[in-house]
Amino acid sequence: MAGGKEIRTKIKSIQNTQKITKAMEMVAASKMRRAQERMHQARPYAQKMRNVIAHVSQANLEYKHSFTLERPVKRVGFIIVSSDRGLCGGLNINLFRDVVNALSEWQSQSAEIDLTTIGSKGFQFFNRVGANIVSEATRLGDTPHLDDLIGRSR
Fold first, then answer.
1. 88 an active-site residue?
2. Is the N or C terminus of the chain more exposed, i.e. has fewer CB atoms within 10 Å?
3. Dmax of the chain from CA atoms?
4. Domain spans of the chain?
5. Considering only CA atoms, which of 132, 136, 38, 42 is closest in space to residue 82?
6. Is 100 exposed, middle or buried (0-12, 13-18, 19+ CB in 10 A)?
7. What pTM was estimated for this model as a whole?
8. How many other CB atoms are there within 10 angstroms of residue 137's CB atom?
9. Using an 8 Å Cβ cutoff, are 152 and 137 in contact?
């Protein structure tokens, strides 16, 4: 049978675990609330996108705009969205691997390639490999503002 001191130690350990669990629940609730707020803020954008898609689906299919005509590709642009910090598992590495594969395909076709990077990890990687970065945006945080993005082209 366990002694009194062992029981008190066990009770204290359980109480500490309860405190940690409560703190984790509070953090999770806060994150959930913020995610729901962002989802609510995105609803007008989603509605506009639905309207645009509905409008495009009703368009004249025989009309061909000059932007939709096939022509030889001379220049290609990539917008690469990566993280500012590396705390996201293999996300950045997998993204960069896919982009490098696509870049090599376009280079084999003699196309000029321009990159825009969003996130410091993408900027650091593609700057290190010598890619042509025409603009970049870093340290935008979780809620970037349009003012932070305008005027960053080189």
1. yes
2. N
3. 87
4. 1-64, 72-149
5. 136
6. middle
7. 0.58
8. 19
9. yes
Beta-ladder partners of 113: 76
- Arch. (CATH architecture) of 72-149: 3-Layer(aba) Sandwich (3.40)
Q: CA-to-CA distance for 119 and 128, rounded, in angstroms?
A: 14
Q: Kindly give, in sequence order, each residue whose CB lies less than 8 Å from that of residue 81, ignoring residues fewer than 6 positions away.
A: 118, 119, 122
Q: What is the pLDDT of residue 149?
A: 66
Per the residue annotation, which of 53, 88, 102, 134 is the catalytic one? 88
pLDDT tens-place string over residues 42-76: 999 999 999 999 998 888 878 888 888 888 999 99
Tokens of residue 94, six digits: 């997998």
Query: How many angstroms separate the CA atoms of 154 and 145, rounded?
Result: 19
Residue 42 tokens, joined: 């995105």
**Residue 59: both structure tokens together:** 């368009």
Burial class (CB in 10 A: 0-12, 13-18, 19+), 122: buried
Going 132 to 135 to 138 to 141, the CA torsion angle's sign is negative
Q: Of 144, 138, 141, which Cα lies nearest the Cα of 152?
A: 138
Residue 123's contacts (CB-CB under 8 Å, 6 or more residues apart) are 82, 117, 133, 136, 138
